Amino acid sequence: MMRAALALARRSLGRTWPNPAVGCVIVRDGRVIARGRTRDGGRPHAEADALAQAGEAARGATVYVTLEPCSHHGKSPPCADALVKAGVSHVISAIEDPDPRVKGQGHARLTAAGIAVEVGEGAKEAAEINAGFLTRVREGRPLFHLKLATSLDGRIATASGESKWITGAAARADGQRLRATHDAILIGAGTAKADDPDLTCRLPGLAAYSPVRVVLDSKARLSPTSRLASSARTTPVWLLCTEAPRSDALQASGIDIIQVPAAPDGRVDVAAASRELASRGLTRVLIEGGGQVAAAFLEAGLVDRLSAYRAGMLLGGDSRSAVGDLGLAKLDFAPRFALVSSRVVGADTLETWRRGA
Questions:
Q1: Pick from 256, 304, 254: which is nearest to 280 by CA?
Q2: Coil, strand or helix at 112
Q3: For 326, left (φ over 0), alpha (ψ -120 to 50), or beta?
Q4: Mean pLDDT per segment of 10 residues, for the chain of length 357 residues?
Q5: Enzyme catalytic residues
Q6: 49/59 Cα distance (integer angstroms)
Q7: Cβ-contact 149, 175 below 8 angstroms
Q8: Angle between the 2-11 and 46-54 helix axes, to the nearest 10 degrees?
Q9: What pTM, to 2 d.p., does this model score?
Q10: What is the side-by-side strand order in the sheet with 31-37?
């Protein structure tokens, strides 16, 4: 039953920020009577969604939920109170919510009402599903997931800049799926200028779930006629800069201009940017390019996950690297990642890595 709740939570990834993605299954007399998940935009919460389906049948039932039921009044009433009112007899939570407004209080409220509470079943998977939410609460920043699409020797374009397409159609489609599980996609000004990308989800049925598009553009030089600017009123674009733009053309296009501190090299300070993105509710950010942006986040120790799509070709030393200079004097200083999984995607391979060896 917890596995079913976890699957429901996974379906909500990229759609619930600033709230966590939660799944809930209600069981009575050995039969599932309701399933719920945190709905798009973060409301209703998973427990409320499931209780609405269960109705009076929830009385005496067992509830499996992937995160501790909330105990505070936000835009929705506390889920812990809703469970007490529904008369459930048993709540099994995967993990405790670290949010100070909840943190054990939801479980305590249930226990005080005479409801049996268990915590820990499915904890590892629940923590991974909500790693972005947990990172924002604990560290004040989103989880950053770096996506690379490279040749075997880690290159993203030829010396002339040609890059379409290094990986095949199946890998590109899988990359679109990855986009849909994140709250935002982040690129640098160089990629925005060179590729003029849409950064939307182009898989059938996922267009409505295109994430926020974030551009690190220290001088705010994004063209008002770019694809990003032209579509900003349909799918949000946030431009993080160190200097206010000289004209209001970008604001007029619907882009949200956000001024943040500069790093010593004059570019956007990525640590400051990460705090700003968290303050706006983002929990999961997919970094898609380019090499300087990837290097900046790696140097700052902010890359938590890495997905590397690799094609069976070699481009050589005169081609463009997926990651810019890191200035490493010793191997001991190199960012390290542990392999999580590896699979074939069409003619290419996808390796997924987690920060920390």
A1: 256
A2: helix
A3: alpha
A4: 97 94 96 96 94 96 97 82 96 96 94 97 96 97 97 90 89 93 96 92 81 95 94 95 82 94 94 98 94 95 97 92 90 93 96 89
A5: 47
A6: 16
A7: yes
A8: 120
A9: 0.93
A10: 31-37, 23-28, 62-65, 90-93, 116-119
